[in-house]
Each structure stands twice: as C-alpha cells, then as structure tokens.
Design a protein that fits this description.
The protein is mainly alpha-helical and about 110 residues long. The protein is built from four helices and no strands. α2 packs across α3 and α2 crosses α4.
C-alpha cells in the first residue's frame, strides 16, 4: 500500500514541482545547472501570457486555474492562447501607462 501511495503522490506532485522549480531558473543565484531550452521557452511563453491576462479574461481564468490547480496546466496551451502569445508585441515604453506607485529616479 505504501508503494502505491508513493507512486500516486509522485504523479500528483510532479507538475506543481516542475512549475515551481522551473521558475527558479529566473534567478541568477539558482544552483543546479542551467535552464534548458524548454525552460527558457516556457519562461518566454508564460511572460507573454501573464501580460495578456491583464485584458483577456479567458487567459486570466486559465492562469488562475493553473495557480489553484483544479485542472491541468495544459489548459494554457490552447491553440488560441498560443497564437495570441506568439502575436503579442509589447507597447513602446512611452505609450505604456505609468503606475502611480512607481517613483521616478531621484524623486
């Protein structure tokens, strides 16, 4: 019974573990090798999805489900999400709204 439990536990926790440890590679002090091409591609993709969450409710809802884990992270790879991430272009800095909480240098 213990072995069966451990196998099921490993299956259940593998995706959350990969999501958490993959994000560690964003920090230069992370030990344990270098991020793979797949990890770098996932960072690129997730960065774009997070920016799209601000005004695209369906992506936001799918991302919220990823965070709270009621369903598979595969929901973030719907063809329409991938297409929007690939098409995403960041607005030039001058046209982006400024946050009232960010202070200018030297202020």
């Amino acid at each position: 019974m213990a072995r069966r439990f451990q196998r099921q536990l490993a299956k259940t926790t593998s995706m959350p573990w990969l999501l958490a440890t993959g994000e560690d590679f964003r920090y230069p002090g992370t030990e344990g090798g270098r991020p793979s091409r797949l990890t770098r591609a996932m960072h690129w993709y997730m960065d774009r999805l997070l920016r799209l969450c601000a005004d695209q409710r369906d992506i936001y809802v799918a991302f919220a489900h990823l965070i709270h884990m009621p369903e598979s992270p595969n929901a973030l790879f719907q063809p329409s999400f991938v297409a929007r991430a690939l098409a995403y272009r960041e607005a030039p800095a001058a046209s982006q709204p400024r946050s009232p909480y960010v202070q200018e240098s030297g202020s």
